[in-house]
Amino acid sequence: MNQLVCLAQPGAAILAARLVVPLGSHLDPPRRAGQQQLLAGVLTRGCGDLDAEAFADVVEGLGANLRCEAGDDLLVVALKCALADANTLLPLMLQMLEQPHCAAPQVELERDLNLQALQRLQEDPFHLCHEQLRHQLFGSGPYGHDPLGLAPQLASIGPKQLQQAALQLPQARAQLVLAGDPEASLLERCQERFSQWSAGPVAEQSVAPSPAGSLGLLACDTEQAVLMLGFRTVGLAHGDALPLRLLQVHLGVGMSSRLFQVLREELGLAYDVGTDLPARRRDSPFVWHLSTSAERLPEAMDALYGEWQALRQAPLAEAALALAKAKLRGQEALGRETGSQRADRLALLLSHGLPADHNERALERLGSIGPEQVQAVAQRWLLEPSLSVCGPAEALVQAQRHWDQCWLQGPPPGQ
Amino acid sequence: MMVAMSERPLAVLRPALGFPAPIQTSLSNGCPVTLLPLATASVVCMEFWCQAGSLQELPGESGLAHFLEHMVFKGSEGLGPGAFDLQIESLGGYSNAATGFDEVHYHLLLPPEGLGLACELLPRLVLQPSLENAAFQLERQVVLEELAQSEDQPEELAFQHLLSQACGSHGYGRPILGLKPDLLAHTPNSMGAFQQRNYRSDRCAVAVGGNFDPELLLAQLEAGPIARLGRAAQASPRGSFNFQAGRQQLALPRLESARLLMAWPCPAARELDALMGHELWATVLAEGRRSRLVEELREKLQLVESIDLDIHPLEEGSLAILEATTEPENLPRVVEAVQQVLQGVQEGIRPQELERAKRLLGHGHSFGLEATSQVTHQLAQATLQGRLLDLDAPLQRLESWDLERLQALAPAWDPAQASVLEVLPA
């Protein structure tokens, strides 16, 4: 059910708020990739008594930060404002989801802006490589595209479809998390309205089955080649999520991390190297990424392959595991300084049906996780490699050859 | 508390915006230190700043300031490559560094119990880099990869082109990452000379914010290498540059959307009040949907995907830079529409536009001080540049601007005064 939670910061002059509904881009209907992000953008273009211009006048006139975005799982309205302005802006935030206009000219404008943004993103080889990897991992279904969508499909979405989609917004599974010192009467008013939200059920899309490993090649006339190695893993609530997080930290967080040490410090292959493991409701992709000179691509593929196999073949050294745990504890401590950070984290947890103290509990469990458990998790989830490469054509030929010779041989026997 | 002797008179600061008064002091060699103890903070942040940005590079030295910032993390005497990162990250801490035109800075964010170690290690790392040859050769590869990565982004190339067009042979027109022939020619010796010349007591500053004991910290800094730095051989020259107005076109491969880039000269960073006036202008023009340019070009004419206008404060003359993203065929219309908006606003800003801009800027300032690392960052930079003021000083400056004073700045936004770059797909 809907929850309104206030993280009290007595005396704070700033209020941060997150209004979250589980209506992210994974719910984009077939052939309408980009719908939920378009909807999110349109929510700031008029609601209730305010048309787009009047809405912007209120928010900008108060000097507030307000943005609305669809992620893979969640549609998030984020607000930061002076405390005194919360009486105006918090009810407005609710109204954005209760009574959005989705007026045709505004929908068309927002859609054109998103289409142009997609076009501009084609300039970025990291984006291209990542989109290819998404497709390798998730096909054309949920999680298979950037929330901005796919241009031809986005272009076909009209105001009517968006107005229909908007009916699901006042969800009974919404979370409103505040950080600050709002008046009790304001909280009561919000709570009262919020508790009446009960839009109908949402049609879930099924995620494509886990793919076999694959190599994706995309020709791009760049100096460097971008490499992304991805695995489909588990959702945030899964028991293996914590050991996987440790693996991610071990490999890619900070200058002491394994990939940084090997690929950058020992081999000088790359400037930017790291890992991502976005917290998803299910099937979080675990991505290892770097970009290197096209002629050094085979060397980089060798190194990535070696690191992947090492994780599966032998348990982490005790010292490496201890370092990963310390870094994870540090991330937790450093990442909850501001009201916005705290509201973000709590809204995410509650949206995924997890308890508010999920992270604290995870830190308590950290001590009991040993190298064998981490290795077992690596063997379970880092099984099928999907490698996406974006770079000059001659480098792609090298990549294909390397893949055929080395990666296609599969994991060594005995696994 | 006991405050070490100081060479320059220090303004007395007062508490503001929910923060206690920052403590201004200096080490025995004159290196300024600013401390902001926050008993309730869950973290501590330490920043070391130095006027050793790319502007200090002599002919042939391009890229050296940034390359040195990389080499710092490759170790110091008794602290092997990676040893610093390992120790800091084992404590749950995080470090980073960045090189700009005017400054380089090193940043540490960590749990309070880690500060003692950080305070021992960071000064050694930054001021006594080993510059060992094998590590130097390897790190050069990394810097070249960083350069290649940046050059694979057409947007970066366009931005760099605009800077060189507007700033000419001045340091602000040269890429911070350096020119490739120079990068290939650098040696540990040339880097050592740059380091010795620029990392001096009168060109450095330290700021620490968060949960810590100021006296302990000062004693520790005083015992370390920062306090042993000598002064620079010559005062850091503070020049200016001849801004070059004009119009150019550039065709770039792999560009998908066209760009209009425009730069205007603005007052130097030390001219806080005048710069605030320009910030207000930029906000009226391009911050939010109700700003002049966004409203006209994106919302009404629907000619651009985005249009931004940012003030980049710089010591030898700031820059205002406009960037619009559009379809290639619409570029001429965008150029024209921007001109019309800029001409229209010459007739005057409306009162409600000024109020809106003041709110946006004022809140932006307050919102930007929420995290310990943000406030420490601002204190460190202001300390280095010798203009530390109360944390709410920008809000007071904002209030001093009215329509009449703003109107006097209108000629500065004449499109004919700008350096204009039209960028199209090749």
Architecture overview:
The complex is a heterodimer of chains A (415) and B (426). Chain A is α+β, with helices and mostly antiparallel strands. Chain A folds into two domains: 3-194, 2-Layer Sandwich (Cytochrome Bc1 Complex, Chain A, domain 1), CATH 3.30.830; 214-409, 2-Layer Sandwich (Cytochrome Bc1 Complex, Chain A, domain 1). Chain A is 45% helix and 17% strand. Chain A contains 16 helices and twelve strands. In chain A, helix 3 packs parallel to helix 8, helix 9 crosses helix 12 (318-334) and helix 10 (258-266) packs antiparallel against helix 11. Chain A is globular and about 65 Å long. The model of chain A has no long low-confidence stretch (mean pLDDT 96). Chain B is α+β, with helices and mostly antiparallel strands and 426 residues long. In chain B, the strands form two sheets. A six-stranded mixed β-sheet of chain B has the order 1-2-6-3-5-4, with helices on both faces. Residues 1-7 of chain B have low confidence and may be disordered. Chain B starts with 22 loop residues before the first strand and ends with a strand. In chain B, strand 1 and strand 2 (32-37) form a beta hairpin. Chains A and B meet through helix 2, strand 6, helix 4, helix 10 and strand 11 of A and helix 2, helix 4 and helix 12 of B.
